[in-house]
Amino acid sequence: MGSKWENRSISEVCSLIVDCVNKTAPKVEYETPFKMLRTTNVRNGRINLDNCKYVDEQTYQKWTRRALVKKGDVLLTREAPIGEVGQVTTDDSVFLGQRLMQYRANNKILDSRYLLYSFLSPEMQNQFRIHEGSGSVVSHIRVPDCSKFEIPVPPLPTQQAIVNVLGTLDDKIHLNNQINQTLESIAQTIFKSWFVDFDPVKAKMEGHKPEGMDTETASLFPDKLVESVLGMIPEGWEVAPVSEVSRVAIGKTPPRKESEWFSTRTSDVTWVSIKDLGSSGTYVLESKEQITSEAQMKFNVRLVPANSVLLSFKLTIGRVAITSHELTTNEAIAHFILPENASMSTEYLYQYLKQFDYSALGSTSSIAYAVNSKIVKTIPVLFPDSEILSRYHQTIEPIFKMIYNNQLESKTLINIRDTLLPKLISGEIQIPDAFDGETI
Questions:
Q1: What angle do CA 299, 293, 270 make, to 5 degrees?
Q2: Average pLDDT rounded to a whole number, residues 24-50
Q3: Domain 180-388 in CATH: superfamily?
Q4: How far apart are CA 20 and CA 95, in angstroms?
């Protein structure tokens, strides 16, 4: 057991702390070099610049008078939600919207990435909860309290050693995510070409050899398109309700008022929510919340086998993932379970449901599409020739295996990082004692 570091007020070790209260800048509907970061852009230790709101240069200059955002600054969401943290890693022209706090480390005594990991530690997250207050609408951390947090501050070389260990793990996790995004994009491109745009069929109709396709595979595609309920499709292919292609079932939620049915123990039954689907990646490996085996049996919550396809169809429609193991879901998620002898692969159905236009299934409202479980069962699925499905599976299977293996590796690395982080930040484990070397 190593000695613990001295705790210091965050205001002592930062050269800049700025709140972004009452900042609602007017946005423009066209792309500009000037982006506004919102709480939704700050998640899991990183800042995602996708879906930023754009503003004009005049607005940008006006709203950055208090403090420009610089590379290395750490951001904290103090409301909606509380406690999300990220670090600015770009020199792009960005500024902060409301409900965000901006922290700039005094680099003479504090490493900026160490500050990030300190904010991610369970000890600091607990401080955020302690300072949480109830507002008229949502809970929040009061701005004055955002300068009162305390973090352990070891000597700067020790901070940098800690960052090296945790950063190496995080960089590998991030790389795996980037690789998987590329692999997913490749898989989607192949699927779209074969089964949405029908490029091989159209090429043959024009008397050309399908581009980038071997002769044997090309010979499997017809050279004619015919009318169907989905519009023009290749001759000989069929369209059938998804309920004829796979077994369709819906999840269930035990009574929420009876807390004994829910847990955070990974040994209990995985229980997937729409939020889990949003963060899972291609495969669902885990969930934020579990249910007990007693709850699963008592309330007849369906067990979904591995290699099934999940689809969210309430509130947020169209999130799709593949199960990596037997699990359960809530009632907002449909399960598509293919028979063992099916010519259609799980990967095909996954890709098909990812690109399907769900707006055609139900009326729309300001909140979400009005799609129910009965409508889900009628989703029309394009059913190509079995030989083409087999060839597609041979082409795509190695890509999905790589995606799955990368997700598994990242899960292991995340567990290692989350175990080490609080011990390193507190000084319980010191680098020379934990690792016989400077890097991992």
A1: 100
A2: 89
A3: DNA methylase specificity domains (3.90.220.20)
A4: 10
